[in-house]
Amino acid sequence: MKIIDARVVVSSPGRNYVTLVIETEDGVVGVGDATLNGRELAVASYLRDHVCPLLVGRDARRIEDTWQYLYKGAYWRRGPVTMTAIAAVDIALWDIKGKLAGLPVYELLGGAARDGVMVYCHASGSTLDELSADFQRHLDLGYLAIRAQAAIPGLEKTYGIAPTDGTIYEPASGNAPQEDIWESGYYLDFAPQMMARLRSEFGYEVHLLHDAHHRLTPIEAARLGASLEPYRMFWIEDPTPAEDQSAFRLIRQHTTTPIAVGEVFNSIWDCQQLITERLIDYIRTAVSHAGGITHLRRIFALADLYGVRSGSHGAGDLSPISLAAALHVDLSIPNFGVQEYMGHRDPVGNVFDVGYTFRDGYMHPGDQPGLGVTFDEKAAARYPYDPKYLPVNRRRDGSVHDW
Ligand code: EZ4
Ligand code: CO
Fold first, then answer.
1. Residue 181 C-alpha to ligand 1 middle, in angstroms?
2. By the number of CB atoms within 10 A of the CB, which of 57, 90, 146, 175 ranks highest?
3. Which has the closest alpha carbon to 210: 200, 223, 226, 224?
């Protein structure tokens, strides 16, 4: 089952997506997500210039061999660009394998280990009243788990606040990064007030999540965790910059608030210390940024040994192909925790036709052979690439801070 073509499509149906299309001699087509927000063309070039020529002529059925060949064969290992490129190939090959077998990918991964995949959505507001209204709206939609973010009084712009016109929060913009001002003190005072308000209004039944987006020092993160303990968070996400793994030892000494980390990780080696030292509770690696289904399963298997659950990244800057691939993994692993689901808005639906469904707080990848996502290349051509950057944070003195 030889691969006869591998091509990269960069398009922007509302936001930028990089899609890898692999075709076999039998006419079976598989698709993979190669999107790396703000650095899209680097992955597109890695694939086009260095990987696609190697794929042509290879046996599409040999997923593990292709993964090892691309990972070990590059000599230069890991890194977001490399691992996103390998992920795209891996996801496309699993899609092809499912289509060849006539089975949804989750069946190839061992079958459903649960009936549905609990997802969490994003609620936000530029005031606590607005956050409350948005929270209620998501409860009405059936969500059982909700991430809450509100604008921090005293700061001009806060991460994670969606516009009030109903569009999804999308931080990337412009021809250069937008610059925001960050002040941890305001945030640390405000965060417990936000959660107190939500718990007093909505009770303790709904799972409550929050993203600190890598901005705190270890002792500040410890204070945040301790101050949120009365509100019994499902998790706080990325309290400190995640590459400093021993920082989490300090956080752990001070709080029982569960910790979720890993959306910027791209290999099992990035997660190793956090998992094996039991410094986190949820590992958030994304299928498209951490080497695809093959490698993500390996990370989650390691996590399972240490009582760490999955909580895959699922922001809108990951294409519907990523979400589908994540749902197949989520459905089949023993240590699934929760799946992030920001959703995609049209015109994304004009380009990606999806088989996954949402009902009563749970998603299901569907039972179409493969991943269950059809990518319309002709439609994609109508939405040309639109260069954008993620923002940069500065402190009041002008120094660059983690965003
Ligand atoms: O800022 O995916 O939990 N979700 C997040 C995301 C990230 C974006 C970056 O591209 O932190 O909103
Ligand atoms: Co996050």
1. 18
2. 90
3. 224
